[in-house]
Amino acid sequence: MLFALSAVLTIASSDAAEPIIVKSPDGSVAVSFEINGDDLTYAINRGEKTIIPPSQIEVFTDAAMAVTGHQTQTHDSVWEPVYGQFRSIRDHYNELTLSLTAGRVPVELICRVFDTGVGLRFVMSEESRGRKISYQTVHRLPNVAAAHNGSRGGKIPNLKTSRRISVPLVVQRSDNVHVAILESDLYSAAGFESLRMKYSSSHRGVVASNVAVSQGAGHLTPWRVVLIGDTAGALTVNTVALNLAAPCQIDDTDWIVPGKGLWDWRIHGYHNGDFAYGIDTRSYLRLIDFCAENEIEYLTVDDFWFEHAGNGKMKVSPKVDIAKVMQYAKEHGVRIMLYYDRKKGNFGDETLFEHYAQLGASGIKYGFMGNKATFTRESINAAAENKLLINFHDGPVPMTGVQRTMPNLISREYCHGQQDARKAFTPETFLNMAMVSGLTGPLDMSNGNFGINSINAGEREKGPKERNTYISTVVSEVARNLVINTGLVTLPDAPEEYCKKTDLFDFLRDMPATWDDTRVPNSKLGEYITVARRSGQTWFIASVGDQNQRDLNIPLDFLSPGIRYQATVFSDGPDAHGVTNPEAYEITSTTVNKSDIVTVRLAVGGGNAIILRPIE
């Protein structure tokens, strides 16, 4: 680990007319600060390009800002996440600390500049105690060609008329530079709720804000984050937001195990001719058997296993012997994620997590808790105290970076889950969610349906309300599970459907849930993406496309030199089509090396998946 402290420079406020500039370690990104009248402004440039022209930043509403001093330092270290896209992450930045007065109250502004982004955070003084913090940054964004935002990756028709912009905001500029606005380490910012954004014509830019009441010395705001990349895919592997998050707060993380899991919810009503799945003990035991036989680490038992909760008690469904299910799972080495939400009453959060741990659950899937940061912090902490993973659903707080700080946050549905809101879940919205919503951290999108014809025919209780509206191919379903970054890969289909295509299921069976390295060779918002992930010496590659048939070239220059690889290629069949023939696929084999370029064909709504194993 390296840590270098530069010479400290302190300046008087009378010298603040000159811009104060801090650059990234490679010198490509520069952030400058100035006092204009009573306002503090910042600007971001990358090389000769202006990313954000001078824009206002404040901590108390309309407070006059003045600079009293500043200091700089350089930090360079490496840390290892518990799970994620990389085995190790370099944390390399130059940091500027601005000493300020805001309405005569001393505060500090911390600016960290990385080669691919910037973080801005205020630190409160004791003199600020009890004052209302209104942390507001303006982001003037030139040359915007397209903009997307929010938990569903939605395209913004006109940024300048947007009165509500959901985190994150991703803009593609006319010069193809991609810029994202979001926040990090909300977990450490006590009292703050999620970032709110809107376009302001008076500020001529996007205004991002959080509010809280100052708790005095050392009280932190969240980091305001600006990511910069040449492609949308580059943003998905950008580690700035993770580096800005607080280091892991859990001393022993051995119990936090990323993995794949089966999910019962979408299987309800599936009938294989001899057996119909429902919310009952025998269905759960059957699903546990499949998990054990296929080395799938988890089963998520979703809603209606209990009928009511209140005052520290649960009325379990008479069709479910939950003690038997938990014991059977334990005997077969399968971990259970157990569902809970307050629609069936309030068990009492002070004892809920202890109760789930006593039942033998490995984690809790928490539904309908909403975008409430304080509640989310407390739930994550309570889960960790009881060694439980937690997966938030139904419009949760994005809380970017928390998987570094509290890695028991294994996933969350900050997206449209598979088959939810079918009118919005198209191949295009999957791609936008992967490249927009995914910037906030791990997603639970529950991809991986193999019985697409069955689902479109209405043979599931919880399939799409309108038949034949599910546009995807089985190979795309496989590929989507690699594209999405998550600590818990949730598989939503019936075991029988996976057994019908066991050779295709091999990809999912062999695919890990945490990675040593990740690359994104191809990407375009709403159109296509290729993601390559490495575990050990084996690479898994997945491509997903929109509703246009296309060919993608995948350069294999990320492979190790001097090694040949056996490539197993899972492709859409020659006549595959996401609407008319979704289940056609083929599997081929070839050998490749670092100098090769693989061309893959994607059907309408289709995908491609490849496993590259070194040949000894």
Automatic annotation (TrEMBL):
<dbReference type="Pfam" id="PF14509">
    <property type="entry name" value="GH97_C"/>
</dbReference>
<dbReference type="InterPro" id="IPR013785">
    <property type="entry name" value="Aldolase_TIM"/>
</dbReference>
<dbReference type="GO" id="GO:0030246">
    <property type="term" value="F:carbohydrate binding"/>
</dbReference>
<dbReference type="InterPro" id="IPR029483">
    <property type="entry name" value="GH97_C"/>
</dbReference>
<feature type="domain" description="Glycosyl-hydrolase 97 catalytic">
    <location>
        <begin position="271"/>
        <end position="413"/>
    </location>
</feature>
<feature type="domain" description="Glycosyl-hydrolase 97 N-terminal">
    <location>
        <begin position="22"/>
        <end position="247"/>
    </location>
</feature>
<feature type="domain" description="Glycosyl-hydrolase 97 C-terminal oligomerisation">
    <location>
        <begin position="514"/>
        <end position="612"/>
    </location>
</feature>
<dbReference type="InterPro" id="IPR017853">
    <property type="entry name" value="GH"/>
</dbReference>
<dbReference type="Pfam" id="PF14508">
    <property type="entry name" value="GH97_N"/>
</dbReference>
<dbReference type="InterPro" id="IPR019563">
    <property type="entry name" value="GH97_catalytic"/>
</dbReference>
<dbReference type="Pfam" id="PF10566">
    <property type="entry name" value="Glyco_hydro_97"/>
</dbReference>
<dbReference type="InterPro" id="IPR014718">
    <property type="entry name" value="GH-type_carb-bd"/>
</dbReference>
<protein>
    <submittedName>
        <fullName>Alpha-glucosidase</fullName>
    </submittedName>
</protein>
<dbReference type="InterPro" id="IPR052720">
    <property type="entry name" value="Glycosyl_hydrolase_97"/>
</dbReference>
<dbReference type="InterPro" id="IPR029486">
    <property type="entry name" value="GH97_N"/>
</dbReference>
